[in-house]
Specification:
153 residues; 11% strand; 64% helix
Length: 153
């Protein structure tokens, strides 16, 4: 049966399927560790939460702005959560909210020039942190394997 055979390593005691399960659990744990470290660094260095960073990233990719609903959908969080995040970013003058033309109940949210500058600074540091945290990974092997997984979709 596929996945029941022993690993190519003759000394391996676990079936391949158990090794794959263990790898899956390690991937999940690694994601948790990396995310926790990024959250801590964002908080300590920039007094910013990961959701605030994510909102700013979405707005940076959409310079024309986004409605609250489209932000909610893009980030897969509730409108209420997005509203709280936007309120905190507005207090720091990183985003501006304006009424949607023809519908006063809808808003368009955009990064302010100060917000764009701040986001670019934070994003540069974030990229550096990810590079540091991922430096133990053999990139070519990991990208090849994960690419095969993604291609199954």
């Amino acid at each position: 049966m596929a996945g029941e055979t022993k690993a190519a390593n003759p000394g391996a005691a676990r079936p391949v399927r158990k090794q794959r399960l263990r790898l899956w659990i390690r991937l999940l744990r690694a994601r948790q560790v990396i995310e926790a470290e990024l959250r801590k660094r964002l908080r300590d260095r920039f007094d910013m939460t990961m959701p605030q960073f994510d909102v700013m990233a979405a707005l940076e990719r959409n310079p024309e702005g986004m409605t609250m609903s489209s932000l909610s959908e893009a980030l897969m969080v509730s409108n209420g959560n997005v509203t709280g995040i936007i309120d905190r970013l507005m207090a720091r003058k990183y985003v501006a909210r304006e009424a949607f033309a023809g519908d006063r109940r809808r808003f368009i949210v955009r990064l302010t020039p100060a917000g764009l500058d701040q986001f670019r600074s934070v994003a540069t540091q974030h990229e550096s942190w990810v590079d540091e945290l991922m430096s133990v990974v053999e990139i070519d092997q990991a990208e090849n394997a994960l690419g095969k997984l993604a291609a199954r979709r």
